[in-house]
Amino acid sequence: MKPYRVLLYYKYVPIEDVDSYRDEHHLFCLEYNLLGRVIVAPEGLNGTVSGLVADCEAYIKYLQADERFADTQFKIEEHDLPAFQKLHVRVKKEIVHSDLPVDPLKKTGKHLEPSELKEMLHDPDVVLVDMRSNYEHAVGKFKGAITFDMENLRELPQHVHEIESLKNKKIVTYCTGGIKCEKASAYLLEQGFTDVYQLHGGIIRYGLEEGGENFDGKCYVFDNRVVVDVNTVNPTVVSTCYVCGTSCDRMVNCANCECNRHVPICEKCGEALEGACSPTCQAHPQKRPYDGTGYYPSASNHYNPKQGYISLRKAPKGTQESKSRTV
């Protein structure tokens, strides 16, 4: 068993005093040395956090002890190290940026469990539609799935016409952890699609519970791991090296911080170009040192997770802060 866990979850539920709950949530994460990203919004909670096993278990108990989050579903993965360098608990207007005029608490696609999706994959009337960004599905997607060339979910209305002819099919939307599909499936219903489903728990849960069969490539994730394996049944590689075109699912950021392009680059080209995506970027004065991973977390500037609490609350002098315990 690996010493760390990565928890991925979301919950659509009204939160009235988002600022107070943000403070409470942030302080709990400090106490248990948890790192990651959590969004608090009037419509709910969305987070990915990482820490030692016992601390992650405490976090799950903390959330589920609150009746608003009692039935929150967690996707739990093992990891050798913390999956983040920082802790951010932020208040935003949505828990996933979409600007779509829908409320998933009132209408959304039918939730499809991973085992049910596995059965439906053989149904000729089923069409899988990927609701992730182009750079995410470029490195991995379900076999035969429809993808959109969009940067984010806000662009979905510009692409719905591409599946207009499929309104009478069984549409199954999917994404990394399920959160985008709550609104995406609701939007498709608003646009006249009649039989819309969503993969409950997303790609990650499908891989954990059903072995990821027929998911080609790897799944892009928003932490230090960048991509993770999903398919243990019939895995394959679908992406190619941005530089030389060979088969490759090793996702990196261009070492030139002004480019920062997120693309697959094989180890050979990564070494040759020192982590850059082109000779031009290799020669750029802003090129970062290449450590062989191609992952560059934002500069810490002597990051202290308590500062996120202090700066957002603008705490007056003398304010007592929760002390973080050592583990």
Commentary on this structure:
The chain is an alpha/beta fold and 327 residues long. It folds into three domains: 4-95, Alpha-Beta Plaits, CATH 3.30.70; 110-219, Rhodanese-like domain (Oxidized Rhodanese, domain 1, 3-Layer(aba) Sandwich), CATH 3.40.250; 240-295, no CATH class. It has nine helices and 15 strands. The protein has helices at residues 18-31, 53-64, 114-120, 134-137, 179-190, 202-210, 267-272, 279-282, 305-313, and strands at residues 4-12, 35-41, 44-52, 75-79, 87-91, 110-112, 126-130, 140-142, 170-174, 196-199, 215-217, 219-220, 227-228, 251-253, 262-264. Strands 4-1-3-2-5 form a five-stranded mixed β-sheet. It has a four-stranded parallel β-sheet with strand order 6-10-9-7. Helix 1 packs antiparallel against helix 9 (305-313) and helix 3 (114-120) packs across helix 6 (202-210). The longest helix has 14 residues, at 18-31. The chain is globular. Mean pLDDT is 91; it is low at 315-327.
